[in-house]
Write a structure and sequence with these properties.
Blueprint: H1 11-24, H2 37-44, H3 48-60, E1 64-67, E2 73-76, H4 81-98, H5 103-124, H6 127-140, H7 147-163, H8 168-189, H9 195-210, H10 214-243
Antiparallel strand pairs: 1-2
Length: 244
Amino acid sequence: MKIDPNSTADLSAQIAKAIRDAIVAGELIVDDRLPSEAELAEQFEVSRATVREALKRLAAQSLIRTQRGAFGGAFVNRLSFEEAYGQQITTSTLLLSMNAVSFEVACEARYAMERACAPMAAERRSADHLATMRAEIHRQGQPGLTDEAFCASDVAFHRALVDAAGNPVLSYQLAGAVEAMQPLMNMITFTARSRETIVQLHQRIADALEARAEDLADQALQDLADYTRELGRGVAAARAARNG
């Protein structure tokens, strides 16, 4: 593990990256003990304070854990998909906001990925997945439900659909699509959309998955994607007319 002392990058960030790269490359594996702060400081030719900051960065990413006592130190952590969801969502949200991704692009990406889950979800969905989706459909039909609560229920419904595919890698990758893109799309379209239409489309998706009819699930998702795009275009046109 090496760093470039002449680089303009923060030294602690360089050390964190060097250790992270070693973990990714398999040079350090789960439960391996990292060298002590003093040993790392000597290896990288930096102060212990700089090493300590690098370890804090790695701990914040759940890549290492610290343990006190005679057999303590910093150890390579076993990162779970569940623990990584939050980071994936945060990164996706930042990417969408910082790069001003268009509604059309976000919509295309989100539904393309979600439709890819439909065949597996139709085959593998459990009673719990269906129960979650049915519960959210029921919630979405309740009178007096706030826009914020409806949006949260919308996300929960699609999260259950993705998880029904039974593939933790897909669930992780789609965490950003569903839990970052979906709220973004809801924010844009919530004033124009028909809750009744959304509920009917969600009902079609749940019914198709229960029947293990992947073609019907895919068609319902396609119809939902088309409806969402139509709403987005309508909102954009109305905004342009007001500003024009």
